[in-house]
Give the backbone structure.
Amino acid sequence: MTQKPENPQAFPMTVLNFATNQTPHSGSDSIGMTLRDYFAAAAMQGFLASDALLDGQASREPSKTAKAAFGYADAMLKAREA
């Protein structure tokens, strides 16, 4: 089984409760979309804005286009590890 690449927050932001000066939730102190989601959104935007849909790079079916976008996102995350 292959290990998934690291998937940090795309735009990390520390959440702070100003009354207590502490983070209001346990676990991660960051919220927001992950880098994988950001990369996938960028890839999908490129597919939809270009002729890639017509050239067979992605399908006109939204679910297949989304899968392709996440495939590119996973490849981008993997490349960051190199």
In short: Helices lie at 35-49, 62-81.
